[in-house]
Amino acid sequence: MVEVPHAGLHVDAAALSTLVSPASALGRDADLYVDELFQDAPEAGAAFLVAHVSRYVVDLNRTEHDFDALAVEGGAARLSPHGLIWRSTTEGRSALSAPLSRTELERRLVTYYRPYHAQLSALLQQRVAMFGYAVLLCAHSMPSRGRDGHQDPGRERADIVPGSRGRSTAAASVIDTLDLTAREYGYSVAHDSPYRGGFSTGHYGRPDQGVHAVQIEINRRHYMNELTLERRPQDFARMRRFCQELTRRLAHVPIQAALAAD
Known about the structure:
Layout: E1 2-4, H1 13-16, H2 23-28, H3 34-37, E2 48-50, H4 102-131, E3 134-142, E4 160-163, H5 172-184, H6 199-204, E5 211-219, H7 233-250, H8 255-261
Parallel strand pairs: 1-2, 1-3, 3-5
Antiparallel strand pairs: 4-5
Helix pairs in contact: 5-7
């Protein structure tokens, strides 16, 4: 199964009235085109779940409780500005005109967050029931260099970053398949650096319960112009072929053999 939680740009009217971030931030902080890179996933027999809502409405790769008082009225003490509700852009500009009301937060949870995770959970459980296990690929993209709001500002990043929280969220064969496929395509790989896997990877990645989850962060320089946000056609086509081959291989990864070896 492939899930893409951050490619969307949709902001509904109620959410739009709370935003002060520039329109360009919605594009720069989205995982643009990742849904298109993985659009061939169903051909490999994979379920394909894509969110169209912007992470500036609600971040689907966070827990329901990951917000502070600067983002939502009555929230906890100061936490990350990029939690469930983003209160600033990656580059540090304000995203919200004021903290959201609890009513508005609940509306977003009911409208977007909970249905998304209910569907994700149901699809995974269907696969566990049918096959005895499920493989979840959490698909994301990242800037080629860490921006000011990141933990690695200015540092050049690897081409592909698999996130598995220290190889704890999936069998070795799943993680190694991602690694090997990327290297065969000539991409550099850095595990868990700078992303170890977000909420979905950690929450659903329970190998002992038959669900193997790994996050993939794709370096944007390999398929798009990071300034204009436009696709780079030839590079995009190659990255799409990589994503297609990766999905095909993950659909046939020998999970039981891996568990026995572990």
